[in-house]
Structure formats: C-alpha cells, structure tokens
C-alpha cells in the first residue's frame, strides 16, 4: 500500500498559478501510473490528469489542457501538478491517486486507482 500526501493548495486570484505536490511513501510508486482528480462541492469526482510510471505518457481532461502540466520525479517519490491560468471553475479539492498494478497503463477512471491522498483545497477567486 502507498500513502499519499498532497500539498500546495491555497487561495489564488483568477489567472494565477499554483503547484500541487503529491508525496508518496512505498516502493511501488515509481513503477505505477498516477493521477490527479478533483471534486467540487455538490459534484462528482472528476479526472484532471494522469501520468505513466516513466513520465513518458500523459493525458489531460479537456478543461485543463494547455493550462495544467502533470509531472513526476521518481527519485523523490513525488508527483506534481502545475496549474496556470486558473479559473474560478477550477475551485475544488484536488487529490492524487496511484494504481497498484506495476507498469500499468494510465487511466482517466477513478475506479482504476487504488490508493488516494486526503486532498488539498484549491480556491480561485474572480
């Protein structure tokens, strides 16, 4: 089992930037696909971005494409989400997740992820 801890959330004005981090403990993180999801009040959890274990394959939700960048540093057991040109509709709790299947493919479906962090709040004011 992998334990995940997010950080970097906060309050920012529209057009601003934030960088989220997801620190993982456990030996399997570097060989697992990982992703970011968000959930706004009263809404379902939504896919944001995913990255392969090697970092060579990434995929984004249409709503964040061109504004957000997912990356990872396996030597540090950490994944990142650089969020630029933030909009009020990006306001949500952002959670990172990882798949236990080693060298598995990326996925946009939350049901394919096994371990989750507690989440970090991102609030974008207009």
Summarize the structure.
The chain is an all-beta fold and 126 residues long. The chain has strands at 3-7, 10-13, 18-25, 34-39, 46-51, 58-60, 68-73, 78-83, 92-98, 115-116, 120-125.
Can you describe what's shown?
0% of the residues lie in helices and 47% in strands. With 126 residues, it is mainly beta. Strands 2, 4, 5, 6, 9, 10 and 11 form a seven-stranded mixed beta sheet that branches. A four-stranded antiparallel beta sheet has the order 1-3-8-7, with no helix packed on it. The protein is globular and about 40 Å long. The model has no long low-confidence stretch (mean pLDDT 96).
**What is the overall silhouette?**
globular
In DSSP terms (H or I, runs of 4 or more residues), the helix count works out at: 0
Order of helices and strands: EEEEEEEEEEE
**Main β sheet profile:** 7 strands, mixed
Give the proportion of residues in helices: under 10%
Quick check: average pLDDT? 96
Question: What structural class results from the helix and strand content?
Answer: mainly beta
Note the beta-strand portion.
Answer: over 45%
Number of strands: 11
End-to-end Cα distance, whole Å, is 39 Å
Extract low-pLDDT stretches: none
Cα gyration radius (Å): 13 Å
């Amino acid at each position: 089992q992998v334990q995940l801890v997010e950080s970097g959330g906060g309050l920012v004005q529209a057009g601003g930037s934030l960088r989220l981090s997801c620190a993982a403990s456990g030996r399997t993180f570097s060989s697992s696909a990982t992703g970011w999801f968000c959930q706004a009040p009263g809404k379902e959890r939504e896919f944001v971005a995913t990255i392969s274990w090697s970092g060579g394959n990434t995929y984004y939700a249409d709503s964040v494409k061109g504004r957000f960048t997912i990356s990872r540093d396996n030597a540090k057991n950490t994944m990142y989400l650089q969020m630029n040109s933030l909009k009020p509709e990006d306001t949500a709790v952002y959670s990172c997740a990882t798949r236990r299947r080693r060298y598995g493919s990326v996925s946009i479906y939350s049901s394919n992820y096994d371990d989750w962090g507690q989440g970090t709040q991102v609030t974008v004011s207009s």
